[in-house]
Specification:
6 strands, alpha+beta, 89 residues, 3-stranded antiparallel beta sheet, 3 helices
């Protein structure tokens, strides 16, 4: 998983105080927490999951080992809901 690249799917559809909304290709709206939205935004198809962890670690001033598992879980949930797809290029 660490070396896989994922590309976000769907479009931003707004925000409220704490949640972000994304609409997928079938017009389903998803409510994302700030953490999930952050990972979704970083999934631009060019960064590996490992690079996303490194970037998040630097930006959030947290150790990489504390972010690896949560980011992997978020990425799997995004994949399950088709809000990201593996970029095979």
């Amino acid at each position: 998983m660490k070396q896989k690249r994922f590309l976000r799917k769907g479009e931003e559809a707004g925000t409220d105080n704490e949640n972000f909304y994304v609409v997928d290709e079938s017009n389903t709206t998803y409510e994302l927490s700030a953490a999930v939205y952050y990972v979704w935004k970083l999934a631009d198809g060019t960064k590996t999951v490992e690079e996303i962890v490194k970037q998040a670690s630097a930006e959030l001033n947290m150790p990489e080992d504390e972010l690896q598992e949560p980011i992997a879980i978020i990425m799997l949930k995004l994949l399950e809901n088709k809000l990201v797809a593996e970029n095979l290029e």
